[in-house]
Amino acid sequence: MWINGFSFDDLFNLSQLFPLKIMTTQLFDSYQFHDNFLHGISFLVEDFRSEFLMDIDHILQWPKCPNEIENEQFFIVSKALLRFNDVTDLSININWGESGYTTAVSGVCIDAIERTNIPTTLRFSNYYKWKVILNDSSSFISFGASSFALELIGNAIQTPRQFLLDAERNT
């Protein structure tokens, strides 16, 4: 798969050098965020414009087995930032249920991100309803936003996991 004219190997090599914006709203339909681990959310509000940020581990490449005998699987994963612009109508619903305080929280992963073009009276030619469906399928984050970008902000790492350890995220 090619993103903005770059192969995954190109993206891996470039991400070692500097933060890289690899996807924007126009390329959304050709990309996936399944099993991207969510580490945090934050908000930026300036001049009556709001941004919603999601700190994630983004999977650039799914498993390949370099050693067929051992059947090892490796992912290429990078710390990344999903940035949504001109956000309205934010709703966050994360519910891990009732376990009688016996089940540990194992983290939040993205199952899928849906986007629907919606009419708006705001000053944007295109405005979207976004829904981030989380790993338990009943939890979600939804909002309106005019656009978004995915920015790789760390070194891409080859790992047998779909996420990065804290030490790997902070290198």
Written overview of the protein:
- With 171 residues, the chain is mainly beta.
- It has one domain.
- It is globular.
- The N terminus is likely disordered.
Main beta sheet, described?
10 strands, antiparallel
Radius of gyration: 17 Å
Oligomeric state of this protein? single chain
**Strand percentage, roughly?**
over 45%
Mean pLDDT: 82
- What's the number of domains? 1
Shape: globular
With helices defined by DSSP (H or I, 4 residues minimum), what is the helix count? 2
Q: Give the SSE string.
A: EEHEEEEEEEEEEH
Portion in helices: under 10%
What structural category characterises the helix and strand content? mainly beta
β-strand number: 12
Unreliable stretches: 1-6, 14-19
The N- and C-terminal alpha carbons lie at a distance of 27 Å
